[in-house]
Amino acid sequence: MSDGTDVTSGNGAPAGVPITKFDDPHLQPYAKNPRRAEMLIGAILLIGLAGFCAYGGLYWVGGQTQWEAVFGGIGFFAFGFGLSAWGKYLLPQGPFVEDRHDLKSTEPEIEAMAAAIEDRGKMVFRRRGFLGTILGAGAGVMGVVITFPLIRSLGPQPKKTFDTTNWRSGSHVVDLDGRRIHRADLEVGGSLTVFPEGHQGSGVDQTMLIRADTKDITTLPGRDTWGPKGYLAYSKMCTHAGCPVGLYQQVAQQLLCPCHQSLFDVLTGGNPVFGPAPRPLPQLPLEIDSQGFLLAQAGYDQPVGPGFWERS
Amino acid sequence: MRKKLRVRYLLPGMLVGGVAVAGLLTSGASVSQAATPPAPKAAGTVALKTATRAADNIITYHVPPSSYIAPGRTLFELNCSSCHGVDASGTARAPNLQGLGPATVDFWVSTGRMPLAVATAQPVQKPARFNRKETLQIVAFVNSLAPAAPDYPAGIPKVNLSAGDVVEGNSLFVLNCAGCHTITGAGDALSNGFFAPSLHKIYPRQIAEAIRTGPTQMPHFGPGNISDKQVADIVKYVTTSIQHPTNQGGLGLGGIGPVAEGFIGLLFGVGGIMLVAFWLGDRK
Amino acid sequence: MSALTSRSAGRIRGRNGTKATKPDPVVAGVRWLDERLGVAKGGRTLLDKIFPDHWSFLLGEIALYSFVVLIATGIFVSLYFIPSAKELIYHGPYVPLRGSRVSAAFESTVNLSFGVRSGLVIRQMHHWAADVFVGSIAVHMCRIFFTGAFRKPRELNWMIGITLLILALTNGFIGYSLPDDLVSGTGLRIMFSIVLSIPVVGSYLATFLFGGNFPGDGSIIPRLFILHVLVVPLIIFGLLGAHLGLLVRQKHTQFPGHGRTEKNVVGSPMYPTFIAKTTGFLFVTTGVLWALGGLAQINPIWQFGQYEPYKISYAVQPDWYMGWLDGALRIMPPISWTLWGHTIPFVILFPAVLFPGICFNLFYVWPMVEAKVTGDRAEHNLLDRPRDKPRRTAIGVASLTFFFVLFAASSTDVLANYFKVSLNEVLWFFRFAVFVIPSAAGIFAYYLCREMSGVPGIGRRKRAVVITRTAQGEYESVSTAPRPGDEADHEELLPTPVPARIELNGELESVEAAGSGVRRIPRP
């Protein structure tokens, strides 16, 4: 509460400013025992100081991640906690109030603002409407063509890039190191990531080579020769969101995609049996040449990977 | 300073691997050495077909001596035959073990997966029921029933860890193993109740066995797929970087990545600071 | 409180009331600024500005200060990061990677982690700060929502806040994708597929952005870098300024209470109280993040290795704040349409593009929707208690639960592994849970609010009633005195305006303008 006395010095002190006595309860600290609070806050601030010093010293001798975190953390935390506690417990507790002046302007002011826009706007467009149209059209076209360098210049058009891979008729099946895969290499129940020769490590060409027991395989129509000696090759790019389908479950004979848990059945042409994948994994037709090496009969018969607008 | 930290993790890892191998040699003192192989083990029992790569002695394969067969029969009859049959040929409850080879049996028994405690979809690793000698006796017995099929190793692998290259092992692990076991070897769930187990408590020998025998859903990686040298590389990598990861950043949080990190960040980060806010502000 | 300290007055005054020669430096300083910027009048208004003290008003500050930490640590980190996908051979201290081909982005991040003093702490601190930033925005947003602080005149600020949330999510995703490691690279692969799924323009946008079919020509890394350190932070900075500026202009809301009305603000003044508390809070936030930065490992990219498009790991969830989208992607049924030579992969388009679009649009229009539905178009500066608006609270609880279930759905594999249940069953559970659990939570919240607001004296300890029996056999009930501190009308100070001048030690001095000495004001 102010005692309401005005100060009228006439020099530098504004009239009508209330004076508050220092023992006003609003100015008292929040702490019931300010001396004790002071000691405590002082101790906390000292801990902060010590933390900073410790961090500095540790840094000087080379540092160690965990202790840097402990010292720096303690330093900052105690420093901040002490400062906050000072603000909460030792400074005037209040509560203080201020008025919210009306945010809104008065009705005449609002009308005057609207009128300013309207009346002057009429002066701009009076009998010059067609200019405005041309200006607007220009702005519109500007807006459109500005996006050309911003977006179009970034990269190439897709064209056919999603439709084909580097697998061709006669491509040797090789592993990541470029070693040609021989029919004797995989055991039944084995799996390997393979590529067409010359394109090891290529994302679109990545293929899962699996050897299943021939008696378990259900050949789909038209795919009778695609899986010689139980070797099945499926595109490793998930048809859901493109993650490599690297989990081969050899007893369940399923490929599991780790990203969103799509399950593909290996024995029935890569058919999705669970999860969000909407299409089977494209199968690569294999053959075995006279020396026993695995080759692709042809490339994939459809685009690999996730769906896109142009995919028919 | 940083290099020292690196060595701090590597050396114990290699020591553990070395001790494990040494333990195999000393505690099972009657495991025969490569010098005096019994009949089924001939040179090149690693791959019973021609491997496309040069043979190497990075992994040697051993079988227990024939004196283990008789005590092994007893142990098998007591502990295994109720499900697998007296001649291990399988019943409705359990598969045929004949022809799976010593490495398979050693893996399942020494990791404690067998004998089975609870019939879930997939047996879990638990403390082994039998000591090393007893395990080898069971191995010897099952192995005596039928020779190992061609696509299974004919002996228990012993990995020469010093020949393994951790860098090669890293890239092999990422390509072949991380998809199921996760990049940190923490393990994760497969479909229909199956799972890829954590790799944090497995011996080098058992890693090689798993790779070569493809337990449960794990693919069966033969020497034409992953050579012995590559197996040694993977074992080296798992026993060092997977089992003793460089967690220089602090608590590893289980190695499962953002799920655990989000939990900690929200609980301790946001929650912790909110506690301070609760203290600092008013309650009304 | 423009306090006049007796110390400075003493300095000016001299011993016996004689004229002093040295002007008060504070007055001189204020005058210097005022002559150039005119700050004296407006500045005092600023110093007197009142901030309500409720603890839930500090949640936005957590976001603000974690942003400050992000900027500070981000500057540090960006001094070491090389935003290039160019391949080189790793020769650094981490042995399992030696000799392997990695990108410059990856290598520089590993180098920062192992080869720079305090590099790992600050790098991890940056990442933790991002997680906490988004988390605190979410918590702050909940507070705004449940207390109705978004109502007129604060709808604009709400919309700015939603935009800030979107930008924070975006920058976080971009940020953790920069090191080009296996886990974040997988996230970029999924991002590519999401862009690809957009009808008509998807394939174009995707190849434009990445420079070709995934993984592109390597230009994605430097592009994401400049978005992450320049473009998005600038926009966030600007919007944050607007967000705080609106707060200053419209003043903070407050809960109803003693002495509080729609037309005033009750709390602590800016100087010195609020500045002390809030600066302390900044350092507390920094301290917590610093401690996390070295005690809890986050994003150990050296363990993940360089990203290649044929590599994958399991348990590859995105950072937590993207989990709701990942969960939506997992539980979506496999719907894809192929018509007339074109494919619309709805299975990706809906959860990753349309669904977040719908959600954020709903967030944006909520103030208008609520105003229309309730018919309440009045200006509100007093907040609601959530229990007083049961419908809004129920909808908020249901929405929050919905997002939470989606988050949980993003860790189906981890949950299945941890609880040893079938992955397939976990997924089916979430497909139903995502509808059932939020509905149940919303209904429960509604009735809870109704219950709580209906009971008088709720939240306060009840007074004991002593029942005595008279000798005649009558029963009398006597209310006991309330326990100390429980009095409903215990003496509370009424709010008072910020004192302009404080009388110290029984004497009031007035400091004269520099040069003309001091006049002693007679004590009133």
Summary, kept brief:
Chain B has 284 residues and is mostly helical.
Describe this structure in words.
The complex is a heterotrimer of chains A (312), B (284) and C (524). Chain A is of the alpha+beta class and 312 residues long. Chain A has helices at 34-60, 65-90, 107-125, 129-151; strands spanning 19-21, 96-99, 173-174, 191-196, 207-211, 231-235, 247-249, 254-256, 263-265, 271-274, 283-284, 286-288, 294-296. In chain A, strands 3-4-5-6-11 form a 5-stranded antiparallel beta sheet, with no helix packed on it. Chain A has a 4-stranded antiparallel beta sheet with strand order 7-8-9-10, with no helix packed on it. In chain A, strands 12-13 form a two-stranded antiparallel ribbon. In chain A, helix 1 packs antiparallel against helix 2 (65-90). The radius of gyration of chain A is 38 Å and the shape is flat. Chain B is mainly alpha-helical. Chain B has 2 domains: 2-248, no CATH class; 252-284, no CATH class. Chain B is 45% helix and 4% strand. Chain B contains 10 helices and 4 strands, in the order αβααααβααββααα. In chain B, strands 1-2 form a two-stranded antiparallel ribbon. In chain B, helix 2 (69-79) crosses helix 5, helix 4 (101-110) packs across helix 8 and helix 6 (166-176) packs across helix 9 (228-242). The longest helix of chain B is centred in the N-terminal third of the chain and has 26 residues, at 2-27. The radius of gyration of chain B is 22 Å and the shape is elongated. Mean pLDDT of chain B is 82; it is low at 1-5 and 19-55. In chain C, 57% of the residues lie in helices and 7% in strands. Chain C has helices at 6-13, 25-37, 39-48, 59-78, 104-115, 119-147, 155-177, 182-196, 202-210, 220-250, 270-295, 301-304, 323-331, 346-374, 390-409, 412-419, 423-454, and strands at residues 50-51, 87-89, 101-103, 264-269, 337-339, 342-344, 465-469, 475-479, 496-497, 501-503. In chain C, strands 1-4 form a two-stranded antiparallel ribbon. In chain C, helix 6 packs antiparallel against helix 7. Chain C is globular, with a radius of gyration of 30 Å. The chains are: A alpha+beta (312), B mainly alpha (284), C mainly alpha (524). The interface between A and C is large, with 102 and 128 residues.
In whole angstroms, how far apart are the ends of chain A? 80 Å
Q: Based on CA inertia axes, which overall geometry of chain A fits?
A: flat
Rounded to the nearest angstrom, the distance between the terminal CA atoms of chain C is: 20 Å
Which oligomeric form is depicted? heterotrimer
**Main pleated-sheet profile of chain C:** 2 strands, antiparallel
Overall outline of chain C: globular
